[in-house]
Amino acid sequence: MFRRPASCPIIHPWESLLIGAVGALVTIGCDVLLNRLQVDDPVAAVAVHGASGAWVGGTLGKIYKNRADNNSIFSWQPVN
Question: Where found in the cell (predicted)?
């Protein structure tokens, strides 16, 4: 849920599903890594907000830039 709302105007539904799925895998991977390194993060805040946020920020930045180059996001209408 946390990964998608800001991106709704600029991405297609299938892109949202893909970003969310990969974001979930990034979150799980980061949580496993932090547990192996014995980092104390009982609510997995670093995994959810840090690692997953970095994935989503980088991905959406790339999508946003590609769409901005085509002037498709500046019409303030949903992407078809």
Answer: Membrane
Residues 6+ apart with CB under 8 A from 27: 44, 47, 48, 51, 52
Contacts of 3 (CB under 8 A, 6+ apart): 19, 20, 23, 52, 56
Beta strand residue intervals within the chain, DSSP E: none
What is the spatial distance between Cα 22 and Cα 26, in angstroms, rounded to a whole number? 6
CA dihedral 66, 11, 54, 48 (to 10 degrees): -170
- For the segment 50-77, the average pLDDT, to the nearest whole number, is 68
Kindly report, residue by residue over 3-15, the tens digit of the pLDDT: 556 666 777 788 8
Neighbours of 27 (CB within 10 A): 22
